[in-house]
Automatic annotation (TrEMBL), chain B:
Chemical reaction(s) catalysed: a quinone + NADH + 5 H(+)(in) = a quinol + NAD(+) + 4 H(+)(out)
Location(s), subcellular: Cell membrane; Membrane
EC number of the protein: 7.1.1.-
Quaternary structure annotation from Swiss-Prot or TrEMBL: NDH-1 is composed of 14 different subunits. Subunits NuoA, H, J, K, L, M, N constitute the membrane sector of the complex.
Family statement: Belongs to the complex I subunit 4L family.
The protein's role, per its UniProt record: NDH-1 shuttles electrons from NADH, via FMN and iron-sulfur (Fe-S) centers, to quinones in the respiratory chain. The immediate electron acceptor for the enzyme in this species is believed to be a menaquinone. Couples the redox reaction to proton translocation (for every two electrons transferred, four hydrogen ions are translocated across the cytoplasmic membrane), and thus conserves the redox energy in a proton gradient.
Gene that this sequence comes from: nuoK
Protein name as catalogued: NADH-quinone oxidoreductase subunit K
Gene Ontology molecular function, alphabetical: NADH dehydrogenase (quinone) (non-electrogenic) activity
Membrane topology summary: Multi-pass membrane protein
Bilayer-spanning residue ranges: 6-23, 28-48, 60-83
Length: 631, 99, 309
């Protein structure tokens, strides 16, 4: 059964290779092939899952050694896989949601000439992401990590003819490089400290390592997580990444890849547990991002960018709770899974709306769509209820646990974190209600597109609605299922461990508070957007709104803090290079050239002249020989 | 008389030959000077053969003569072909191989 | 007899000493002659003298075989080859004394002197007072001794030298061989060409009308007394080796008249005027003005040569 683990990765990888190398011959059925391979991978995942359930909790983690990758004395890099409960969760999420989004893309990309290439990239992404989560050592994980980065780059810039898409792809790639640097440094530190980067030796040796070293590794891992999961300060790429096709936003930039940071922190729990300072940093990053993303989400008129802000914020929740240690790991993953369902569903809904509205993205040009797109409206609505934490739906259970855990941190810290999370809930409810109201309610504010065609909103084809329906079902029931008897907690506990926090507030109190905050957000939003007409042209707004529309000035900050000093540094270096080094080198060359052009006259072409030099040389040699011998 | 005088003679002839190579411009005379240098070294070899009481020096002188014959044949052929194209046997006229 | 002279170790017999001094003078004289003679033929003859002297030196030192080979191969074959090429290039050609490379001659003499001094000092410094002599090595004769070595210890070198000689022979053939691009013209074709061009229908005039010198280089005279350059072969014309004797004859005639007049005691006013130099009809082609260009008619100044130098 374990031999299925490599096949998990191999199936989509083969798909990617086939589609990329197969050429136009595969244009007709390539997308179905890719979808079938994704589904096959999901099938493997299910088979492994049922096999895993058949074993006792202690024997569920299995490994599979494929081959030695770099066998050098003292440096052993293997291609070996580990499938435990944590990996299993991710495998099912990735392949399940991935298959649904493949299916959705069949409809969504139906009119794109380069559909085969798109599906190849999607398959490549699946393979890399699966490799990331089933790797048994950090180096192999790094391969997957870079692989998803590559796939993300290729897919964000898929419509490369648009300069904005090409720029966004480059931006995502470059910002991710910063995080990747963190991961590579962390791996090197691990190798120095533990002599290995396989999971078992690292986690086993963590208790013997110095705390300072562990903190360094933890901070580097956090940097990596920030890059991949779009956390402050490396958050700037996610909003622009929405330039990619909507299925990509749903799969990569909402459900799976951006959660890789959470996976990394949870997987490295053994390190973070022993490095409290690193944990504090994680928590701070999470809390800041959770509010940052939420505020950005409130101000955006672009439906996908609003959802991107929301994604950032929700991942902030996960990072926050993962930073709390054993109290929170399981809840982070639980929220990750439920978020995977409802956020993917929301993105697919947004894609469906855009599909019907001539690719219009501004919510101010929507309105009253619920009658025209009933299926989209219902599935989007269920996702909406799930994300704001409406009691009984997925988000309610997972977010409630997170807030509980935040309070359970204890002390002042706990209060601050808990209040941040509560405020986050209100803001989430506010901006999601705004999205909902602007898109599906109110009067029609449709605008003709660039060619002057008035939009004719219509329901999307079956290939698109079926995945949305399935994801909506997941958004509704997954949380309840996980929370039932703490089944998810029990499932993950052997991997992440679990500790009960010491909450100053009773769980019921927290639940009531959360619900109240959520309702407050909904009410506020209704007052602002539901009762009065929404202007088509965005009003000027308060300074905060204006800043939030520009992503809270993140690009300006990056420009001022990084780009400009960098340019200045480069200019200085170029100056020194051209004046100092080049001056020296060119001077040397000029000297040699000048000497040579004088020496050139020696080469006058007269054979007797050459003979004279030979004879002179012989004379010198003989003289030297005789002199040396006479001494 | 000490037979070492033969060596002095050889050195003298060799030097005259070498100077001739540097001074004369006629390619044929140049070759003659080279031959003179070879002969001078042959004389030294023969003298050394006598000095050591073995015939190896004479053998080497013999080979020198053979090689000199080969060299003369090829060299004169070159001179003839140069003379055919350039109507001159002066080595100073063949200076096209410079920058 | 000669081998007996080499029998003494450390010093030589008086006979050999006398022979050496005589030969040394001849050899050095020949070498200097070769160096200083302006004509290649003279250089070659001087070198031949040196080589002969050296051959005798070889024999005096017990290298009888080498001495003979020196005479047969060097003086006989190689020097003949040199002379042959000298004739081909132009027997009368001389090196001009003007040195074209600045400082070359001075540097050459300096280097030569330095080198000679160094070599002689080196030999003088070496301890060479004991000469073993060759009477043991030559016990069964010089040639059998050499043969024993050549065909045993040096057989490999011997074979390789053979290959070298073959290669050299082929190389010389390749170098001097000229491929005919098209078939050479037959006599009929040449005749037809002559008629077609209408330049020179009758045969060229024959040289050597006034056979006072090497007849082929003396051009025939045309009816007006000027020379017919066509009568001299192409090679000689290219080298500029044409002896214009027309002027010389007239000059000679004038001198003869003068002598007669002197003898008869005629006054100078009654004497016929001496014929002045006349312009030749055809100037010498420009490509002949090089160091091969000999002053063949030095005694008879030609009008066009005055401005040529």
């Amino acid at each position: 059964m374990n031999s299925l683990i490599p096949l998990l990765v191999a199936a989509p990888l083969a798909g990617a290779a086939l589609l990329l190398l197969g050429g136009p011959a595969l244009d007709r059925f390539g997308h179905w092939l890719a979808t079938a391979l994704a589904a096959l991978s999901f099938g493997f995942g299910l088979a492994l899952f049922s096999d895993m359930l058949g074993r006792g909790a202690e024997h569920r983690a299995v490994g599979q050694h494929l081959f030695s990758w770099i066998p050098v004395n003292g440096f052993q890099a293997d291609v070996s896989f580990r499938l435990d409960q944590l990996s299993m969760t991710f495998v099912l999420l990735i392949t399940g949601v991935g298959t649904l989004i493949h299916l959705y893309s069949v409809g969504y990309m139906a009119h794109d000439e380069r559909r085969r290439r798109f599906f190849a990239y999607l398959n490549l992404f699946l393979a890399a992401m699966l490799l990331l989560v089933v790797a048994d050592n950090y180096l192999l994980l790094y391969v997957g990590w870079e692989g998803v980065g590559l796939a993300s780059y290729l897919l964000i810039g898929f419509w490369q003819h648009k300069p904005s898409a090409a720029t966004a792809a480059k931006k995502a790639f470059i910002v991710n490089r910063v995080g990747d640097m963190g991961l590579s440094i962390a791996i090197m530190l691990m190798f120095v400290e533990f002599g290995s980067f396989a999971f078992d030796p690292v986690f086993g040796g963590a208790s013997r390592a110095s705390e300072g070293r562990l903190t360094a590794i933890g901070l580097m891992l956090l940097l990596a997580a920030c890059g991949k999961s779009a956390q402050v300060p490396l958050q700037s790429w996610l909003g622009d990444a929405m330039e990619g096709p909507t299925p990509v936003s749903a799969l990569i930039h909402a459900a799976t890849m951006v959660t890789a940071g959470v996976y990394l922190i949870t997987r490295s729990a053994a390190i973070f547990n022993l490095a409290p300072d690193a944990q504090t940093a994680v928590v701070v990053v999470g809390a800041v991002t959770l509010l940052f993303g939420a505020i950005v989400g409130c101000a955006k008129d672009d439906i996908k960018k609003a959802l991107a802000g929301s994604t950032m914020s929700q991942i902030g929740y996960m990072i926050l709770v993962a930073g709390l240690g054993p109290i929170g790991y399981a809840f982070a993953i639980m929220h990750l899974v439920t978020h995977g369902f409802f956020k993917a569903g929301l993105f697919l809904g947004a894609g469906s709306v855009m599909h019907g509205m001539n690719d219009e993205v501004s919510m101010r040009h929507y309105g009253g769509l619920r009658k025209y797109m009933p299926v989209t409206f219902v599935t989007f609505g269920l996702g909406y209820l799930a994300i704001i934490g409406f009691p009984g739906l997925s988000g309610f259970f997972s977010k409630d646990k997170i807030i509980e855990a935040a309070f359970a941190k204890g002390g002042t810290e706990g209060w601050i974190l808990g209040l941040c999370a509560l405020v986050g809930t209100t803001v989430t409810a506010f901006y999601m209600t705004r999205v909902m109201l602007l898109t599906f309610f109110g009067e029609k504010r449709w605008q003709p597109d660039a060619e002057g065609n008035a939009p004719h909103p219509h329901e999307s084809p079956k290939t698109m609605t079926i995945p949305m329906i399935l994801l909506a079902i997941g958004s509704v029931f997954a949380g309840g299922l996980f929370a039932l008897n703490d089944s998810f907690l029990t499932w993950l506990e052997p991997v992440t461990g679990h500790a009960e926090g010491n909450s100053p507030l009773a769980p019921l109190t927290v639940t009531l508070l959360t619900t109240a905050c959520m309702l407050a957000g909904v009410g506020l939003s209704y007052v602002m957007y539901g009762r009065s007409a929404v202007p088509v042209v965005p009003p000027v707004g308060s300074p905060l709104t204006r800043a939030a529309r520009r992503d809270l000035l993140q690009d300006e900050f990056n420009h001022a803090a990084l780009v400009r000093p960098g340019s200045a540094l480069t200019a200085t270096l170029v100056y020194f290079d051209s004046r100092g080094l080049d001056g020296f080198v060119n001077g040397l060359a000029a000297t040699i050239g000048g000497v040579s052009s004088r020496l050139r006259r020696v080469q006058n072409g007269f054979v007797r002249s050459y003979a004279l030099s030979m004879f002179g040389g012989t004379l010198l040699l003989v003289a030297t020989t005789l002199l040396m011998r006479s001494f | 008389m000490n037979p070492v005088n033969y060596l002095y003679l050889s050195a003298l002839l060799f030097t005259i030959g070498a100077s001739g190579v540097l001074i004369r411009r006629n390619a044929i005379v140049l070759f003659m000077c080279v031959e003179l240098m070879l002969n001078a070294s042959n004389l030294a070899l023969v003298t050394f053969s006598r000095l050591h009481g073995t015939l190896d020096g004479q053998i080497i002188a013999f080979f020198t003569m053979v090689v000199a014959a080969a060299e003369v044949v090829v060299g004169l052929a070159i001179i003839v072909s140069i003379f055919r194209t350039r109507h001159s046997a002066s080595v100073d006229d063949s200076n096209l191989m410079k920058l | 007899m000669i081998t007996n002279l080499a029998a003494v170790t450390g010093t030589t017999s008086t006979g050999e000493a006398v022979q050496f001094w005589v030969l040394a003078v001849v050899a050095v004289g020949g070498a200097l002659g070769m160096l200083l003679m302006r004509k290649a033929v003279h250089s070659a003859l001087c070198l031949a003298a040196t080589m002969l002297a050296l051959a005798v030196c070889y024999m005096a030192q017990g290298a009888v075989f080498l001495g003979v080979v020196q005479i047969v191969v060097y003086t006989g074959a190689i020097m003949m080859l040199f002379l042959f090429v000298v004739m081909l290039v132009g027997v009368t050609s001389e090196d001009s004394l003007k040195e074209q490379l600045k400082g070359q001659r001075f540097a050459a003499v300096l280097c030569g002197l330095g080198f000679g001094v160094l070599l002689i000092a080196g030999i003088a410094n070496a301890k060479l007072d004991h000469f073993t002599g060759l009477h043991e090595a030559n016990a069964e004769g010089n040639v059998p001794g050499l043969a024993r070595l050549i065909f045993t210890r040096y057989v490999w070198a011997f074979e390789v030298t053979g290959a070298l000689l073959i290669t050299a022979a082929i190389g010389a053939m390749v170098l001097t061989h000229r491929e005919h691009v098209k078939a050479p013209k037959t006599q009929r074709e040449l005749a037809a060409q002559r008629v077609k061009d209408n330049l020179q229908l009758p045969p060229l005039p024959a040289p050597g009308v006034y056979a006072r010198h090497n007849a082929v280089d003396i051009p025939a005279l045309l009816p007006d007394g000027t020379i017919a350059e066509d009568s001299v072969m192409e090679t000689l014309r290219q080298r500029g080796q044409i002896r214009d004797v027309s002027q010389a004859m007239l000059q000679r005639m004038a001198e003869l008249e003068n002598t007669t007049a002197d003898w008869l005691g005629r006054p100078s006013s009654e004497r016929p005027p001496v014929a002045g130099p006349r312009k030749s009809l055809e100037p010498v082609p420009a490509n002949n003005v090089n160091n091969v260009n000999n002053a063949n008619n030095a005694g008879v100044p030609k009008a066009d040569e005055e401005g040529a130098e």
